Amino acid sequence: MKEILDTVKVPLDTLEGSMATQKEFLDTLGRTTARAYGEDLSDFSRWFKESDGKTLAAGFVTTLDLRDYLSHMLTVRGLKPSTINRRLAAIRAWLQWAKREGELKDLPVFPRHLSEPKRAPKSLERVEEARFLRAVVREGNIRDSAVIGLMLYAGLRISEAVAIRPEDIRIGERKGKVIVRNGKGMKRREVPISSDGRGMIGPWLTKTKSEYLFPGNGEGHLSPRTVQELIKKYAYQAQLDPSNVTPHVLRHTFATKILRSGVDIVTVAALLGHSRIDTTAIYTQPSWRDLERAVDGQEGGGGT
Question: How far, in whole angstroms, is CA 153 from its chain's centroid?
């Protein structure tokens, strides 16, 4: 165990009283988990000695200690909820082990799990979408235009878009639809295609004669990786950050736009192929840009 403690850089002077039990506990874990838990327990040991003035031992930890430690991590150190939750989980695992080993009679009450603030998935702003589409149009590749249109104007997942067959799409002068036969969870759904979407998909649909709408080099369809790369290419041409323009972002843009246009969440869930409404509800959360605009809108206003 000394090798693991050396690896995780646990300062042994902070573990004097609890070193034996912590060593034994970490010995029961895999190397990766022992490394992570060792670092977390080391942090708690240092804080405990500084705040309580005594060396940490399993039997000394109280409910109040855990609340104070959480407060210290959250307000003094400004740690993320995920980091705080992980450290408390390490402490809980150690104390549960200590209780099983007879080192501890009763477990203290742990604080509630901290929730991460929910943010809407990344989506393109109207100006960014326009720039991206101009890059696609300038290239003049009708296949690329069609696969992008399915994600941006019908909200298809990349795996769904590449697997579409020509007979799965119906396009007329005034309306159109795409049939997703094997969506997530093997669910079938039909999604109407807007006039903009029909304009992007139609030219390629009339030209392709393959089994799949987007044939690959072999007998199968175009690979998701190929689609990811072509989207990066157009993002670069549009002078957008390629990491912010992905197949998921195009789908999220579709969902965000229709929600903001007033379409109810049940309808949006059906269009996206979500089996749970709470999955769709994430799109109703404000994005970071929404929060920035809200704050910027206060500038120049009078005080109350």
Answer: 22
Banded pLDDT at 182 (limits 50, 70, 90):
confident
Can you tell me the distance from the alpha carbon of 24 to that of 40, in angstroms, rounded to the nearest whole number?
A: 16
Beta-strand ranges (E) seen in 124-217 are 169-171, 176-180, 189-192
pLDDT of residue 123: 87
Same domain, 151 and 92: no
Structure tokens at 174: 């005034």
Dmax of the chain from CA atoms? 79
Local confidence band at 20 (pLDDT 50, 70, 90 cut-offs): low
At 248, which helix (H) or strand (E)? helix 247-260
Q: What does DSSP say about strands 176-180 and 189-192: parallel, antiparallel, or unpaired?
A: antiparallel
> CB–CB of 286/259 below 8 Å?
no
User: In terms of domains, do 147 and 230 share one?
Assistant: yes
Give the chain's domain count.
2
Of all residues in the chain, the percent with pLDDT exceeding 70 is 85
Structure tokens at 19: 């070193």
The predicted model gives 140-147 an average pLDDT of 96
Hunting for tokens 């855990």 — which residue is that? Answer: 66
Distance CA 18, CA 12 (A): 10
Residue with the two structure tokens 């192929």: 273
Residue 6 has pLDDT above 50, yes or no: no
For the annotated catalytic residues, the residue numbers are: 157, 184, 248, 251, 274, 283
Helix (H) or strand (E) holding 130: helix 126-139
Instruction: Give residue 19's domain range.
Output: 2-100
Q: What is the CATH number of the domain that holds 229?
A: 1.10.443.10
pLDDT of 298 reads 53
Instruction: Report how far residue 57's alpha carbon sits from residue 17's, in angstroms, rounded to the nearest whole number.
Output: 6
